[in-house]
Amino acid sequence: MVIAPIVNLKIFVQVFQAKTLRGHDMRKLFTFIVFILLVFSILILPFSVIGNSVGNLNQFPYPITLIFSDGNNLLIGTESGLFISNDEGRSFVQKNSGLSDTHITGIVRSGDKYFIGTSEGGLYAGNVKDQKWISFSNKVNCPTISSVSSKDNMIFVTSLCTGFHVSFDYGSTWLDINSGLPTQKTTSFIRTESGRNFLGTEDSGLYYSESLDEKTVWQNLLPEYSVTSLSYFMGSLFVGTSSGLFKGNVGIKFQKMDFIGGEPYIAGIIYNNDRLFVAIQNFGVFVTLDGINFYDVLQGQVLFPRSLYLENSSRKLYIGDNNGNLSLIDLSLPLLVCRTKIDLGVVNEGNKLSGSFSIVNIGYGALNGTIFAPAFIKLNKTNFINTSSINFIVDTAELSPDNYTVPIKISSNIGAQNIYISFKVLEVTEIKITLTIDSKDAYVNGEKILLDAPPFIDKQSSRTLVPLRFISQAFGAEVEWDEKLRKVTIKKASTKNNPAILIELWPGNKTAKVNLKSVELDAAPVIIPPGRTMVPLRFISESFGSSVSWDGINRRITIIYKR
């Protein structure tokens, strides 16, 4: 969920007060006139509010493909025209004169000129005051431009028919640099502050070089993928593709950032020094402050983003979508992002569940507030400033067996928000857990649970490793992680059949402690994505006094624990 102060702009139709209209017919006539003005003048109504964080700055009749601002002019490229505003997007004029094709694919400013890429008309250049755009087809001989970018006095153009082009003199002369590429279909380019160059292609993946000259030979980094966009953030290259987002670098293996699952189409990536925004088609816009954790900025308010632009000086984030909506988020204000739902799964009556959530300020304004929870939910902190991580424990000692959905309430200086915690309290005397090697499907007393990480057989020790937190919490134990000491602590109160238990272990260390006594493990615990600690099955089952059976044919584990 996103909470932010609403930005208000005056809508010109508000100057017409109801008292100036005479009857129903006049109101109908006024509505018709406004509609005609909208369609034919493209002086689009500025800013109606979507939710309470995203302002709809304008509505265009075509999908928005590009957004660019130089601080004075805001340029919007669409599939059928280029629009320019000099009043921060309140009104736009269409400027297509000289363009043989109006499907805009690139916009950048270098020196005193704008360079415009098109889908079928090639590259153009000019100034907003010029009568028409001048074709550069005699210098960049490809009608299908896929991107245009610049750095210092250099201009970079990717195309789908003649590869990669660069100018070192504001567009006067151009050099084709395609040696080492198996394709001419280039899609995106970025040059880092250190001078390292990365080039995306439509059908052959990602390439890089340490130089840009006649001797440059591109080397492949990430094969096969269709690259859509590139950004460099916090020492890593982020690669948007038609099947997901990847993170890596030269000499560092690229890993897929699987924060929404599947193979989503990455429509665009934009960044500044401390924030990276990713537009994902059919999902929305996500942000990361650390290059690891991603948060949904829009919560479904813009489902089909096509383009992003981040204006660093004013800290405004522009979003264009496939429906022609131009939206704006003012990042100079505080902007709260947090999860709205947390499912903790099942717990036996009388036992405890632990969980956590983050309150993240993706804006630059000051954020502070207070957190409230029901009495049976214990928070490790109740006040927050800007970004905070909150741990909590649900104690079911006073709860009857049932399904529960309860709110944790966040009250801040910019509004209020609830996080709904769901869990199920079971009335059982025996806990039966069924796991299958290399499968994320697990069962607790017959109820199916989807694991983050499946059990597996460690090749070095030939021991079966199982997810520690899942097993422990199913038994009714609390699990705590100490980041500083890199230690996992499991605590469980005594029951009529079992004494209290305290387990301490360290990932990578074969020595653990059970009730303060050292125990040697068959294999060291390990942490695997997405941050799950895996431990030897024999150790965890014996520590809790449970029994284990193995079905070798189906590679299935059954653990039975009596309360």
| Number of helices in the DSSP assignment | 3
The fraction of residues in strands falls at over 45%
Radius of gyration: 29 Å
Named CATH architecture of the domain at 430-562:
2-Layer Sandwich
| Shape field | elongated
Oligomeric status of the shown chains? single chain
Q: Can you give a write-up of this model?
A:
- With 563 residues, this protein is mostly beta strands.
- The strands form 12 sheets. The protein has a 5-stranded antiparallel sheet, with no helix packed on it. The protein has a 5-stranded antiparallel sheet with strand order 2-3-30-29-28, with no helix packed on it.
- Strand 17 and strand 18 form a beta hairpin.
- 39% of the residues are buried.
Topology:
Blueprint (H helix, E strand, L loop, with lengths): L1 E2 L19 H19 L6 E3 L3 E6 L4 E6 L4 E5 L2 E5 L7 E2 L9 E7 L2 E6 L4 E4 L7 E2 L9 E7 L2 E6 L4 E4 L7 E2 L9 E6 L5 E5 L4 E4 L9 E4 L4 E7 L2 E6 L2 E6 L2 E5 L9 E6 L4 E5 L3 E5 L5 E3 L8 E7 L4 E6 L3 E6 L5 E2 L3 E8 L3 E10 L6 E5 L4 E3 L3 E3 L2 E8 L6 E11 L2 E12 L3 E7 L4 E4 L2 E4 L5 E2 L6 E4 H7 L3 E5 L4 E6 L8 E5 L5 E4 L2 E4 L5 E3 L3 E5 H8 L2 E5 L4 E7 L1
Parallel strand pairs: 32-39
Antiparallel strand pairs: 1-31, 2-3, 3-30, 4-5, 5-6, 6-7, 8-9, 9-10, 10-11, 12-13, 13-14, 14-15, 16-17, 17-18, 18-19, 20-21, 21-22, 22-23, 24-25, 25-26, 26-27, 28-29, 29-30, 31-33, 33-37, 34-36, 34-38, 35-37, 38-39, 40-41, 40-53, 41-42, 43-44, 44-51, 45-46, 46-47, 47-48, 48-49, 50-51, 52-53
